[in-house]
Amino acid sequence: MSQAATGIDIKKSAIDSVLAGLIALVVFGPIVGLVLDGFAFNAEPKRLFAIVAVVMVGRFLASWFFQSTKGRDFLYKHTSKDEGVHVLAPGHKSKLKWIIPLTILIAFAVPFIASKYVLTVVILGLIYVLLGLGLNIVVGLAGLLDLGFVGFYAIGAYGLALGYEHLGLGFWSMLPIAAIVAAIFGAILGFPVLRMHGDYLAIVTLGFGEIIRLVLTNWTDLTHGPNGMNAPLPTFFGLEFKRRASEGHVPFHEFFGLSYSSAYKYIFIYLVLLLVVLGVLYVKKRLTQMPIGRAWEALREDEIACRSLGLNHVLVKLSAFMIGASTGGLAGVFFATYQGFVNPSSFTFFESALILAIVVLGGMGSTLGVVIAAFVLTVAPELLREFADYRVLAFGILMVLMMIWKPRGLVRMTRIGVSAREGNVK
Amino acid sequence: MSQESILKVDNLVMHFGGIKALNDVNFEIKRGTVSALIGPNGAGKTTVFNCLTGFYKATGGNIMLNANGKATSVIQVLGESFQFSDYFNPVAFIKRLKYKMFGGSHLVNRAGLARTFQNIRLFKEMSVVENLLVAQHMRVNRSMFAGILKTKGFKKSEDEALERAFYWLGVVDLKESANRLAGELSYGQQRRLEIARAMCTNPEIVCLDEPAAGLNPSETEALTKMIRILRDEHNTTVLLIEHDMGMVMNISDYIVVLDHGEVIAKGGPDDIKSNPKVIAAYLGAEEGEEVTL
Amino acid sequence: MDIILQQLVNGLSLGSVYGLIAIGYTMVYGIIGMINFAHGDVYMVSAYITAVAIALLSFFGIESFPVIIFGTLIFTIFVTGVYGWVIERIAYRPLRGSSRLSILISAIGMSLILQNYVQLSQGAKQQGVPTLLSGAIRFDIGDGFVQITYMKLFILFASFIGMAALTYIIQKTKLGRMCRATQQDPKMASILGINTDKIISTVFVIGATMAALAGVLVTLDYGGFDFYVGFIIGIKAFTAAVLGGIGSLPGAMLGGIILGLSEALFAGLVSSDYKDVFSFSLLVVILIFRPSGLLGKPEVEKV
What we know:
Oligomer: heterotrimer
InterPro entries (chain B): AAA+_ATPase, ABC_AA/LPS_Transport, ABC_transporter-like_ATP-bd, ABC_transporter-like_CS, BCA_ABC_TP_C, P-loop_NTPase
GO molecular function (chain B): ATP binding; ATP hydrolysis activity; L-isoleucine transmembrane transporter activity; L-phenylalanine transmembrane transporter activity; L-valine transmembrane transporter activity
Family (chain B): Belongs to the ABC transporter superfamily.
CATH architecture of chain C: Orthogonal Bundle
Number of helices of chain B: 12
CATH superfamily of the largest domain in chain B: P-loop containing nucleotide triphosphate hydrolases
Largest sheet of chain B: 6 strands, mixed
Pfam family, one (chain B): ABC_tran
Protein name (chain B): Amino acid/amide ABC transporter ATP-binding protein 1 (HAAT family)
C-alpha cells in the first residue's frame, strides 16, 4: 500500500491490463471475433485482437495515470462534483449580447446564400432544435424522463398527413391543430402516469411511443401502414409551391413571374420554421422566469417540498409535459411538410434516443446548449457519411460518458440574480 | 389572544403494515400559541407531523384544521377510498372523486398549514430568492399569456412577490445571501431559509420539525426570537417538534408529550416539568418506580 | 376451444421466458432502485452468443443433442454473465450516488451501445440457429387438436429449474442472505462488512445469467433473431416485473406467466397485430391502478 502511495506500481498496472484483456476477450470474442454466417461462422481474429489490444493498452495507461499524482488530482477533481449552476449578479449584462441579433440576421440570410442541399440539412437541424427544446422543458426543467417523445413528433407529422387526406386541411390549419392535439395526447397520457415514481414514467412513455408507432403501422385503413402517407406543402397566402398548382390555385413562381425552382419551397419552409423556432426560444426564456417555470425546476429539485408549499405536483408536471408535447407536435408538422411524406419508420425509439442525446449533450435546462447540440448531432452525421453506421454507437457512448463526467451537460445553466430591496408584506 | 382551536386531532391512528406507530392520539392547538410536541426518540412525533401535514394518510381518526376562515378535514382532502354509500349519493361521490384525482398534501398547505422538514428540503440548485418565489406560487399571477407577454399585471405581481421574499429574508437575516444558491448556504442558514419559505405561503399555522437541531447556542437563541416574531407580529400559530428542552420550555405556551404512539401528558411547561409520567418516559423508569427531578 | 388451449400452452412457455428476464429487472430494482434499461439488450446479446456457441460446437463436429444443449447453455450463461458484470462496472458503478435521472440516461446509453455494437459486428441481417429438437405431443380435442412441441416442454422444464436454483441461492445460501440484506438496507449491510459493490455486481451477473437462459431457450425455439429483439421483449419482461410487484422474485415469475398467458390469449382471440399494444397498455393500466403489483409491497414515501 505504501508503495502505491509513493510511486507507480508497474506490476499492478500490468495485472490490471491483463485482467482487462481477458475480460475483453470473453466479451468481444463471440460477438466481434466470430461472425455468424448462416448456421456457421467466419472467424475475424484481426478485429478481435485489435480491440483486445486497445483495451489492454488503454487499461494499462489508465491504471498508470491514476497512480500518478496528476491522475489522482484529476480523479479528485472529478469525483467531487462541484460544478453546478451559478447565479448571475443582479443587472448582469452579457458582453456577448450583440451575438444574438447577429445570429438571427445570419439565420435569415442563410436561404439566400446557401445551396439547396445545405438548406435542407439546416432545416433538419432546426427541426431537431425544436424537438430538443420541447424535450428540454420536460427533462431538463421538470426532471421528467420522457422516452416516448417521438410519439408526439409522430402525432404532429401524421396529424398533417391525416388532416390533409381525410379532412382536406392544409399546413396552416394543421400547424396549431397538431400542437393542440399533441398537447391533449400528452395530457391524457400524463395525467394518470405523472403521479408515479420517475423511473416508471420513463418506461410508460417508452411504451406509449411504441404504441403510437405500432398503431400507425397496423391501422392500414387510416394510415396506409408502412407505405406511408403524403403530406402537403405550406402555401404562401394561397400560392402553392408546386410546379403545377391544383385547380383554382396559382403556383408561387408563376404569380411572381419567376421560373420554377424546388428551392423556393425549402426557402419558405425554412423561414417559417425559423420564425417558429425563434418564437419557441423566446417563450422558453420567458417560462424560466415565470411562476410555472420556477415550479418545474422546484419540482425537479424536491417534489415533497413542493407539495408542502401548496403546489399540485401532478398539474405542474402535466403542464411541462403538455408544453413539451405540443412543441414536439409542431416539429412533426414541419418534418412532414419538409419530407412531403411520412411513414412509421421515422418514429422509432432511436429517434427518441437522439433527441435525448441532444438534451443530455447540450445541458439539462440550457437553451443555448440544446441549439448547438441539435446542430452538431444532426449536421455532423450528414458531413461524415462514412461514419453514419457508428452514429448510434457514438450517441450511446456519449450518453454514458456525459453522465459520468458532466451530468449537467456541456453548457452550464445560469440563474438570474435580483437586486436587493427593502421588502414588505401586504 | 383568542382561545379558539386552530387544529384539532381526534383519535389519530397510524399503522405501517403491522406496526402501530400511533395509537389514539388526541390534542388541540389554540390559535396564536407556540406549542411543542415532545417525546423520546421513536415516540411518533414526526409521524404525527406527517399526518397533520398530509404526507401520510392516517389509518384512522380525524384531523380538523380551522384556518383561512373555514374548517378543513386533512384526511378528506388527501382522497379517501370510495364508500359503499357513495354509489347512491352522487354529490358525495363527485366530492370524493375530486379529492382522489386532485387531492393531496398540497391542499393542506393551501388550507393554511405550512411545514419544514427534519432533514432540510430546499431547492438546492435554485437561488435563495427563487426558493421564496416558488413558495408564493399560489399567490402570484400564473397566467401563461401574461407571463410571456410581460403584462403590467404580471410585472406588478412579480414585484410584490419579490417584496415579500425580501421581507422574509430580512426576518431570517439572509438578505445578503439573496442571490446565492440555496445549496451553498451553511446549515443554520438553510434551516432559517426553510422557515422563511414556509412563511411565504402565508400560513396561519406553521409546523417546524426540529428547527434547532444542529444549531449552536447563539443560533438557537436567534431562532427563539424568530419564533416569537412569528407569533406576536404575524399572528401565526407555531407547532414544533424539538429535542432542545431548554428552548422548548422557554418558548412554548403548551406542550404535548408523546410516548409509544400515545399522548402521555399535555399542558403548560410547568405542568410538564413536574409530570411523573413524562419523567418516567424520558428517564426510562421501571413500572411503579418513583422518580423525581 | 382448441385455439384457447393451444394459446394457453404457448402462453405458458412464453410467460416463463418473460419471468426469467423479469428476474433481472426486479433484482436490480430491488437492490439499487433503478431500471436496468440495458437488460433487454443483454438478452439480445445472449441470443447471438447462443448461435455462436451452436456454430462453434458443430464446427468441432459435436452432434450429440444433450452435449450441444449443455455446451451452449454453459457457454452462453458464462459469457452473458461477464457482460452483466462489465455493464455494471462501466455504466452504473461510476454513477453510484448520482441522481436517478443520470443513472437512467446512462442505462439508455448502454442499451444503444449494445444494440449498435452487435449490429456493427454481426451485421444488421436476421440471424438464425438450426432446429435441434423437433417433434411434438398431440392431443385430439373434438374436431381440432392441441400440440405441445418438445421444445416448449423443454422451455418449461429449464425455466423451472432456473427459477428453482435461483430461489435456492437467494433463500438458503450465504450469498443470498447478503443480497437480501443489501436490498433491505445497503448502508447497514456495508457497516456489517458486506461489500455492497460486490453484491450489486453479483445481482447484475445473476440477472444476466437468467436472461441468458431465456435467450438460449427462445433462440432454440424460434430460430431467428436480430439485434433489435431485446427492445420489445425487454419492455414486456419489465411489464411482467411490474405486474408481479417490482422487487419481488416470485412476483417476477408470476407476472411473467400471467403476462405470457394473457398476451397469447389476446393474440389468439383478438388480434395478433396489436398484441404488443395490448402488453404496453397493460403496463400502463397496472401502474395506474396497482403500482405495487400483485406481490409487491406498497412504497412508503420517506419525508
